[in-house]
Amino acid sequence: MALAFAATILTNSPGFAETRPAFALPSSCARSAASTSTTYRAPLVRHQISDDIVPLVYHGSGRVGQLAGSTFALRLPDIVSFRGRALKFKDRASLCAAYHIPENARIILSGVHQDHRIEPWWTLGEDRARIIEQMRGIGIDMVTTPNFSVVLDQPRTDDMHALKRILIVFEEFARGGIPCALHAHGRTERDFERWAAEIAARTEVETLSYEFTTGPGRRARRSWHLEQLAGLAAAAGRELDIVVRGDPEVIAFLRRHFRKVIYLETSAFMKTLKRQRAERDGNDALRWLPSPTRPGDPLDGLFLHNLRERVTLLRALHYASEAG
After folding, report:
1. In terms of domain of life, where is this protein from (predicted)?
2. N or C: which end of the chain has fewer CB within 10 A?
3. What's the confidence (pLDDT) of residue 37?
4. Rounded Cα distance, 184 and 34, in Å
5. Is-contact 269 302, C-beta < 8 A?
6. In the predicted model, what is the mean pLDDT of residues 92-114?
């Protein structure tokens, strides 16, 4: 049964709020007839992201100028005050000023983070709907659902709980009018069989997300996770997009199975923070050289250089040829 077992866990879990529609959904958005999941269907909300490589900006410290670009990614927990149960920013202007990004840029919120940073999103309970409304009000263009963890050395029911919560949060964002990428991860083939059934039945799911930074990024497990994602794309019965963080070596494989692969680039920012400067190393690599700065010197120029070099390399290695 597709994710149904987790429902008996969720109804008695802290922070659980049954996901009832805030408005009358059309029949196509009612509970899924082809699925035994108890999560409500959501309306289809398509994203408008055209870029395929998107820099993730962790914060605005150390820079004084505005970044040039059409799309940027921020981390979901960073813009939420969990104690205040509201967004940290009252409007789009204050958000963009804090991160030094253009107000007319598209913004993706990435839900990939460590457990202690993403679990608080679930504890917001019914306040999540209000915060999602605030996000829509400041023009967030896409959100990837939190990657609630599935863990090897914990009871299996904890995994079921995590997967169910991911689906519920997807429904909440979509119902709130924000395009959402479903983080359909797992650690067993059965997990992915359940996801395949849900995605096939829920035509409102047009974009997935995945991270190859932790377990899936390990060389011994990477190919297995890629095969599971290919299976989800094939089982959907329609074209899907995917948002990816982590190892860029997965891009070429994913482009053969997904309509669009959006890669969230994190290295340029982190290398700049560590005062390292990118230098070409042949045609297929970069080396990172120390680039110390004086106290108080802005990092704008170094970040711009590193980002330009990184994007150029990624595009040449992983996006230059046609997928197929």
Report:
1. Bacteria
2. C
3. 65
4. 18
5. no
6. 98
**Residue 35 confidence class, pLDDT cut points 50, 70, 90:** very low
Sign of CA dihedral 277, 280, 245, 47: positive
Cα 197 to Cα 172: distance, rounded to the nearest angstrom: 20
Instruction: Answer whether 213's CB lies under 8 Å from 54's CB.
Output: no
Does some domain include residue 324? no
β partners of residue 242: 208, 261
pTM above 0.85, yes or no: yes
Tokens of 135: 């996000």
- Tell me if 8 is assigned to some domain: no
Per DSSP (E only), the strands in 20-161 are 53-55, 71-75, 80-81, 86-87, 106-110, 142-144
Alpha-carbon gap, residue 89 to 73, rounded angstroms: 16
Identify whether the C-beta of residue 278 lies closer than 8 Å to the C-beta of residue 309: yes
In a domain, residue 11? The reply is no
Q: What CATH number did the domain enclosing 152 receive?
A: 3.20.20.105
- Is residue 204 within 8 Å of 43, Cβ to Cβ? yes
Inter-residue contact 225 to 212 (CB < 8 Å): yes
CB 266 within 8 A of CB 272: no
Q: Render 83-116 in DSSP notation, one character per residue.
A: TTTEES-SSHHHHHHHHT--TTSEEEEE----HH
Count how many domains the chain has: 1
Q: Is 158 left (phi over 0), alpha (psi -120 to 50) or beta?
A: alpha
Extract the tokens encoding 263. Answer: 């890669």
Say how far apart CA 109 and CA 71 lie, in whole Å.
11
Q: Is residue 220 part of a domain?
A: yes
DSSP 3: S
Q: What is the span of the domain harbouring residue 169? A: 48-319
